[in-house]
Write a structure and sequence with these properties.
The complex is a heterotetramer, with two copies of chain A (396 residues) and two copies of chain B (325 residues). Chain A is α/β, with parallel strands linked by helices. Chain A has twelve helices and nine strands. The relative contact order of chain B is 0.12. Bound molecules: thiamine diphosphate (2 copies) and magnesium ion (MG) (2 copies). One thiamine diphosphate sits at the interface of chains D and C.
Chain lengths: 396, 325, 325, 396
């Protein structure tokens, strides 16, 4: 029975003075300056040359993928795409601070994390072309990746739903006795959803070892952050829930790496959630369906282009003597070829068989779905030429 | 008269309503300066200012909650839900609040002035979450109206009625017709009655009922059937709650047969209610079981979208089966 | 065997499940130390500790979201929604997440282990917000199961099946029977099959279908009808999604008549789906229109609760009308 | 076009130090000490003798009503009741700081506000007995009061739904050019709902003149506040939304009055929301369906009984020389009689006519409801004795 409700000598005031300046006191963690030079006071986390280069590769690959697919969408080869461009630092470096048994739940703009985890060009392409090799069986729109083997939860379009789920997943990890966390990404727009509130508060109360990583990239489609919330970000909310909170320069991959590493350590050691707010910018359009020129200036974009996280990391590598220009160029052109080839291979792979349409609704298709499938198959037999059956074993 | 697509008709209706009554407010995610992701609210902020047309934070439950408050205060909110697939976070505000506000207060307070607009339906390669047709959920909610236009003329006339209706209205817009459906639309204000179906084509052998984007599907199937000598009566339901039982029953009494087509999964789709009511109403006239040509009972798929859809071919086959029963 | 009321049977099922599998977790508002506002989770925290049975903050969307995450992680969450009337804030998590998790990931991730329990229905002077029967909404959601027990024996057996089912289950408990329904319940573990209806009484003139608390209503009406020489076949549907069409169709083929009774508003209630399916399935056997005896299409009223309810008298009258059709 | 996304020299830090102590810095406004004596530093708001006594009467009346109805429920005369006991200070004094054109949206435990606004004993009883004089037409459970004339929105059971509604209502008031606000009450439990988050954030961004008044009374039914959130309250969240925030001793009616007065002034002058967290305690059971002995100690209750807000106000009146013991006792016993009489009168009033069952679903009953009513009426005619028709003009 609880009996600890009587506040022990609360802090009193006797003047009616609303607190209104709470928002501006939250500092931003920065480790590398825009030229990739560590700040003097910064204590950099340990990071091997190999890992530093792997981070760079993942960032660059992510950008190459984005460029490739935006072009592919313009060519009409794929219906939809959504780029990570500008946010690779925040994503790749945070994922690099996780262990492989940590679960990652993403919103949709975090393909860099999947790249870090080892998702292959071909795997990306199979999903993007909705073919039968896509583990989702081509059921979802492009960019809704998911891979059980990589502990990367399949993406779901409804915003913020993954936030309370991450709390629950992390609670389950804790109960299973795993030294693992759930890393949950979302945008500053998604943070307006009720699910954000529910998830963060539950995680705090139920002591769930999860990292909630908000990419504050300034926009939710066309809606600028200042029409999304009052103040300069959402870090202040973490404090409101009694959650340990870090605001980080999201374009500084070193700061993101350090912050996530520390957050993971605390989350496991203290069995508690942490909120990280990555201050960054969406350099690309929201998606291939969007044109940002309708709602923001070139000038603004230019300012952020100069804060490119990928370049900043490259400068850092250069300073460490870890950047080999020629090797990098060669790697990059190989990657471009690999991507192109993977795309060519994936786009001709048939879609899943018609029979798969009723799979995975339930564990085992119930009678009514079997009946509906039979009816559909009979219909297709009656009209063999009416449908473009690029289905496995059927249309070919 | 002007040639407009469905999107322009919606935009025109909103502009007309905002001009006529300064109590009309338009808001939702990205509807402000940008004019909405489909551009249904284009130029409204420019014309009517930021207080009357504005972006909201990204929270559907908040949007409808806010709109409920505004409506009960005496304004006429027209709230946009960016996709019908994202209306569920607002389900509690709609089902427990919008719909019950008048009843629970004995008519003292109500949200009758509220209109909720949302693009719905498949056909745009949207997969699970940009294709849903959730209208049936809302037909089980006494206190709200559910309205779906099939084309530009209906979109403007029905939306203006919805905005001016003393009852809250959920207005689903068939997004695959946003640009595809083009027609003549009066430039002046006009209203089409809510709760009333429209008989698009008279026929004698079977009655076909659909709404929204599926109306063109049953029309196409009716054309195919006509070639085979089958005469279809084609009905656009337009309002799903309250719905026009009388028009459908009159038609079925005449034809003796009924086919209902909707995109949503068949189980507990609104076709179920129509079938249940009509078999009650027209029992002695029915010459064949009422047929439902609908989406499968699965989430809306991407790669197999075309197979999933209750298209004209499936409808035509079902017409033939029904007539030959 | 032990005498238990429905509440005790639920409690017993939860205890049995938690004993059998440490992955089973029970949580929701007030379910921890207090044991739930109806006491369905009494003593579970005591027995299994605070990590396995616990209070959550007051947020239904959070509860189901959290449960979805836990289920996909490999636990078996049994989440309580304090009243079915308050399940709507969780509607998005259920419809877009719980139900679609498996499909959208091609079976890689799923929430199959999830069970959501909620007391539902009228008869306790609860007014609008402590009386609702929202089951029909969920029958339009492919991917979940909807299960409703009529008494203590069914409550334990079906709840254990729900918890062990590889599919997510919404389990509605008829709260007006929590203490009123008492019966013999095996103390050991047992499961009753999901998706299967039970024929409680065989008959020849008309089939009566209901679920949950309304089963006793149709039984009472069947008794009254028997006195008038009308022989009713009484069916408890038990599972609403997927539902046992075959059992109902077999019965109607025999009796030629069907009456469905549910508390929820008639329009788009689950009776509509049953009627629509059965008129299709048994068209040539039907001797009268399928009859629905249901709640009115209004919010659930307080002062007029008894008039609102589809009680045995309304059912009896409808049986007579149907038989005399 | 916005172009103000580039943070002007943000506050930087270079050490990974999560903010974790944000919660304990929020002081609580107190004006009267437990003996009703003003704190030395407190600047009391202006308050006439008449108004001070009216506040006292409203608090005492609220308690009398609660006592009367809890007894009535035990006697089986009414099905349900829910008491304000212990929170009269927070409720009555805040309502007293509003103007009559301000809208009040309450959760359910704020009958004190309705008393303040002039709801009569008989009006309470008509609602509590669900008779046809209840403006809600007896459709809702007892305690779901509502009165358009008093600008008191009809109560709805689903928790927190009124919070975004209050934002919208206040926005509408602002657009209508009224110098009015919406006062929105809710519990600390309700503040966990997604609607809380949505409502407060929207109010902040859209500059809605609303006062969000959270009664932090320690419990949500059986759930103690420490299982509801981490930290000592929800004031910290207001700060997170960039909303001006006040934490107040909810059992100090003077502090509540002063805080609400100030909040209203700011809300109108600056067109913005304010959050007030009233630290108080639910002395009664959650409702007549609840027994708190299962989840909290007598000792804890006792501590709070000693902080009784009604008594503290009485002490204050006494110090001002505004308390006439005899007059008060006489008023009190009159009130008891009035209440008893009102109850006796209300409980024999018939319920609304059967025909009212289909009213107010829509503006005008559509065909299907008319048909359903006709069927119901025919059914009742067939079975004249089967139903207890205490309906107006029908059962009598
Ligand atoms: C519940 C829900 N509402 C609306 C949408 C439509 N939508 C997709 S992305 C988006 C903006 C998200 O912004 P943010 O969270 O900041 O992420 P960003 O795109 O900036 O990475 C919106 C409104 C959605 N997917 N889900
Ligand atoms: C959406 C919703 N969920 C659950 C409930 C059931 N319920 C009624 S009151 C209550 C506790 C509310 O606690 P709090 O907000 O702190 O208010 P208090 O009773 O302490 O005044 C609960 C869980 C409800 N009414 N609405
Ligand atoms: Mg963003
Ligand atoms: Mg409380």
């Amino acid at each position: 029975m609880q009996d600890n409700r009587q506040p022990a000598a609360p802090l009193l005031t006797h003047k009616v003075e609303p607190i209104s300046n709470g928002l501006h006191a939250i500092p931003m963690l920065a480790m590398l300056d825009p030229q990739g030079k560590p700040y003097e006071q910064a204590e950099l986390p340990e990071l091997s040359q190999d890992k530093a280069i792997k981070i760079h590769h993942a960032m660059v690959f992510t950008r190459l993928l984005d460029e490739r697919m935006i072009a592919a969408q313009r060519q009409g080869r794929v219906s939809f795409y959504l780029a990570c461009t500008g946010e690779e630092g925040a994503i790749v470096a945070s994922a690099a601070a996780t262990e492989s048994l940590d679960m990652i739940m993403s919103q949709y703009r975090e393909q860099g994390a999947l790249v870090w985890r080892g998702y292959t060009p071909r795997q990306f392409m199979d999903q993007l072309f909705s073919n039968h090799l896509d583990p989702n069986k081509g059921r979802q729109m492009p960019i809704h990746y998911g891979d059980k083997a990589l502990n990367f939860m399949t993406i779901s379009s409804p915003l913020a739903t993954q936030i309370p789920q991450a709390a629950g997943y992390a609670y389950g990890q804790k109960l299973s006795g795993q030294a693992a966390i759930t890393l949950c990404y979302f945008g500053e727009g998604a943070a307006s959803e009720g699910d954000f509130h529910a998830g963060l508060n539950m995680a705090a109360v139920l002591k769930c070892p999860a990292i909630f990583l908000c990419r504050n990239n300034g926009y939710a489609i066309s809606t600028p952050a200042e029409e999304q919330f009052v103040g300069d970000g959402i870090a202040s909310r973490g404090i409101g829930y009694g959650i340990k909170t870090l605001r980080v320069d999201g374009n500084d991959a070193m700061a993101m790496y350090a912050a996530t590493l520390k957050a993971r350590e605390i989350a496991i050691a203290e069995s508690c959630p942490i909120l990280i707010e990555a201050m960054t910018y969406r350099l690309a359009a929201h998606s291939t369906s969007d044109d940002p020129s309708g709602y923001r200036s070139q000038k603004e974009e230019q300012i952020w282009r100069e804060r490119d996280p990928v370049l900043r990391w490259q400068y850092y590598l250069q300073q460490c003597g870890w950047f080999d220009q020629d090797a990098h160029h060669q790697w990059q052109s190989e990657m471009k070829n690999t991507l192109l080839q993977a795309m060519k291979d994936a786009e001709i792979v048939p879609v899943a068989p018609v029979s798969s349409m009723i799979e995975d609704v339930y564990h085992t298709p119930p009678w009514h779905l079997q009946r509906q499938l039979t009816q559909l198959q009979q219909h297709l037999e009656r009209h063999p030429d009416a449908y473009d059956l690029r289905c496995l074993g059927e249309g070919e | 008269m002007a040639k407009m697509n469905l999107l322009q008709a919606v935009n025109h209706a909103l502009q007309t309503a905002m001009e006529a009554d300064e109590k009309v407010l338009v808001f939702g995610e990205d509807v402000g300066h940008f004019g909405g992701v489909f551009r249904a609210t284009s130029h409204l902020q420019e014309k009517f200012g930021k207080t009357r047309c504005f972006n909201t934070p990204l929270t559907e439950q908040g949007i409808v909650g806010f709109a409920n408050g505004l409506a009960s205060q005496g304004h006429k909110p027209v709230a946009e839900i960016q996709f019908a697939d994202y209306i569920y976070p607002a389900f509690d505000q709609i089902v427990n609040e919008t719909a019950k506000a008048r009843y629970r207060s004995g008519g003292q307070f109500e949200c009758g002035n509220l209109t909720i607009r949302a693009p719905y339906g498949g056909g745009i390669a949207g997969g699970h979450y940009h294709s849903q047709s959730p209208e049936s959920f809302f037909t089980h909610v006494p206190g709200i109206r559910v309205v779906i236009p099939r084309g530009p003329y209906q979109a403007k006339g029905l939306l203006l009625s919805a905005i001016n209706s003393p009852d809250p209205v959920i207005f689903f817009e068939p997004k695959r017709l946003y640009r595809a459906a083009v027609g003549e639309v009066p430039e002046e204000s006009y209203q089409l009655p809510l709760g009333i179906a429209e008989v698009l084509r008279e026929g004698t052998d079977i009655s076909l009922v659909a709404w929204g984007a599926q109306v063109e599907v049953i029309v196409k199937a009716a054309d195919m059937a006509a070639e085979k000598g089958i005469s279809c009566e084609v009905i656009d339901l337009q309002s799903l709650l309250p719905w026009d039982l009388e028009t459908v029953a009159t038609s079925v009494t005449k034809t003796g047969r009924l086919l209902i087509n909707h995109e949503a999964p068949v189980t507990s789709g609104f076709g179920a209610e129509i079938a249940a009511s009509i078999q009650q109403e027209c029992f002695l006239s029915l010459e064949a079981p009422i047929s439902r040509v609908c989406g499968l009972d699965t989430p809306f798929p991407l790669a197999h979208e075309k197979l999933y859809m209750p298209d004209h071919l499936k409808t035509f086959d079902a017409i033939v089966a029904c007539v030959n029963y």
